[in-house]
Amino acid sequence: MQITETSADGLKREFKVVISAQDIATKVDGKLDELRKTVQLPGFRPGKVPVAVIKQRYGGSVMHEVLEDAVSDSSRQALTERGLRPALQPKIDIEKFEENGDLEYKMAVELLPDVEPADLSGIELERLVADVADKDVDEALERLAQSRSSTEPVTEDRPTQKGDTVVIDFAGTVGGEALPGMDAKDFNLELGSNSFVPGFEDQLVGAKAGSHVTVNVKFPDDYPAEKLKGQDTVFEVDIKEIRQSVPGKVDGDLAKDFGMESLEKLKDAIRDKLKRDYADAARVKVKRQLLDKLAEAHSFEVPAGMVDIEFDAIWEQLQREIKAGNAGEDAGKPEDELKTEYRAIAERRVRLGLLLSEVGRRNNIQVTQDEVNRALISEARRFPGQERQVFEFFKQNPGAMENLRAPIFEDKVVDYILELAKVSERTVPVEELLRDPDEDAAKAA
């Protein structure tokens, strides 16, 4: 076998590999001989099938297997002998192969860069801290009570108003034709919830229980049901009852609803939850600071192929957000400007990923199987009733399992660096702690 390096440009390398016909023939003969010992064919005793018969029947598949193995082994050898670490799977281009001839192929590969982490102990960071005030606990209690609100009949003689729940019978027609799904009995509708066609609820405000209302609306042009898109529709509505919201009470019964022995126990649980939430928010911000400082302190070439993959993922997500109307300011920017901006983001992400990977490698930071299992269980709980399917999916998809492992590894490396860095603390109002980091950046600018 001959391996010749034909090009070296930055992180890119190209090799020409020649595997002799003799080497290929030897490997084919060896595999055919192994096959002869085990294969069973009609008319032949086990292990006595002539090599010629084996070759005639299995020669093509054996040759294919030998060539695949030869390319895989030789490409790996080309990198290992030179101490090269591929960033992505090498690209193989077969240039020449004929029966009883040499195999010649070209291999193009991008390498991982040599990464030299800066002095991590010299990084200075600020962790924001917010105390859990009594008013924060009280507000959370009120929200819990609100979630346990109910309704009761309105006893006074008054018309409906926004916030009321009306019990109605209704039937709709389009051009005088009743369509499936346009009628209901004893339907509970909160006025002002905007859960019906725009304009429907507004026309019921001011009516009294026992009254009949004719509602005229037009379905939106983008309504999911094809027959109703943009259609003028008439609903005949009978208001049978008006109900008003009754807020839940902050008392011992509320605590029992949430499995607590007393209101004080519920308050303690809320306080602990808020502490964890504030700690999580503080970690997100200090991690962002850390990544910004690491990005500023490190500049090295990154594999273009890895940047392409990262950019493609970002760009695909952006296109979905634009289509859904959730892209914000990006929706109005020229495509070239967006691509330049997001390619820079992709390059930064790849560079930081390689840096964190190197820090983890040098300091023997590992992700245990128990940690992966806990992440998998947490993921499965997001899909009640489908846990078994989730486990099977991850079992059969190594790439998906790696997607669980990667963020665990990143967090462990970040924690390691935070222990080395100089981290000061500053107490701030909760509003500042929970503010979007992009808002902080805009204010700083």
Question: Can you give a write-up of this model?
Answer:
This protein is α+β, with helices and mostly antiparallel strands and 445 residues long. 48% of the residues lie in helices and 21% in strands. It is built from twelve helices and eleven strands. The strands form three sheets. Strands 6, 7, 8, 9 and 10 form a five-stranded antiparallel β-sheet that branches. Strands 1-2-4-3 form a four-stranded antiparallel β-sheet. A two-stranded parallel sheet has the order 5-11. α6 packs across α7 and α7 crosses α10 (398-420). The mean pLDDT is 91.
Helix and strand topology:
Blueprint: E1 2-9, E2 12-19, H1 21-38, H2 51-81, E3 91-97, E4 103-110, E5 124-129, H3 134-147, E6 150-153, E7 165-174, E8 177-190, E9 212-218, E10 232-246, H4 252-257, H5 263-297, H6 304-324, H7 335-362, H8 369-381, H9 387-396, H10 398-420, E11 422-427, H11 430-434, H12 437-444
Parallel strand pairs: 5-11
Antiparallel strand pairs: 1-2, 2-4, 3-4, 6-10, 7-8, 7-10, 9-10
Concise description?
Helices cover 48% and strands 21% of the residues. The protein has twelve helices and eleven strands.
